[in-house]
Amino acid sequence: ELLRTQRERLAGVEQAFFDTRARVGAINEQILLQPHETVESATLLVSGMVDALLSAPEVAIQVISGKAGSEDLYIHSLNVMVLAMLLGRKQGLPADRVSLLGLGALFHDVGLAGAMSASRLACSLQDGDRVREQHCRIGSEIAARAGLPPEVQTMILQHHEHADGSGFPLHLKGEQIDALARIVALANH
């Protein structure tokens, strides 16, 4: 009976995961066209994730572990969001901070499309690492234009920073890196 119940919960969470993947795709694609509506939709999505997936963390981990190697950008964003929110909750963050963390993680790679477009336009740009570095700044700018909170903009900007200063784009060290951005960086890694 216990195993049957766990399988049912897993099936429900898996279905929610794939339903959410489609919503994440739409959110990322619409952020530039309908920024305020998109932020509203993303906020509702994150709230739903807090209630649905995070109420059963062991099931959430089981679902995303099977998808962790996916090349799909939206599944990656969803995985990072779930992991970051689980870590934030485990750290004892209040619900409003976990929600902010979820938004930052959901949009952490929103600048990738813009960075790729910029690299195609700049034919002289041969360095793939530079394109990767640009996506943090571009994503933070997109978040600002969309009206996402400053904390979310900071997470997007700093999600590739490393404690030893070897990250990018600002080469911040240790405590210079925002606490929520450190969680997103860890979940992203």
Q: How would you describe this structure to a colleague?
A:
With 189 residues, the chain is an all-alpha fold. 71% of the residues lie in helices and 0% in strands. It has helices at residues 2-30, 35-52, 57-65, 73-90, 95-106, 112-121, 128-146, 150-158, 179-188. α5 crosses α8. The longest helix has 29 residues, at 2-30. The protein is globular, with a radius of gyration of 17 Å.
Q: Kindly state the percentage of residues in helix.
A: over 70%
Specify the biggest β-sheet: none
Mean pLDDT: 83
Report strand %: under 5%
The dominant shape is: globular
Helix-strand topology string: HHHHHHHHH
Query: Compute the gyration radius: what is it?
Result: 17 Å
Structural class: mainly alpha
Distance between the termini: 37 Å
> How many alpha or pi helices?
9
This entry's quaternary arrangement is single chain
**What's the total count of β strands?**
0
Ordered list of secondary-structure elements with their pairings:
Elements: H1 2-30, H2 35-52, H3 57-65, H4 73-90, H5 95-106, H6 112-121, H7 128-146, H8 150-158, H9 179-188
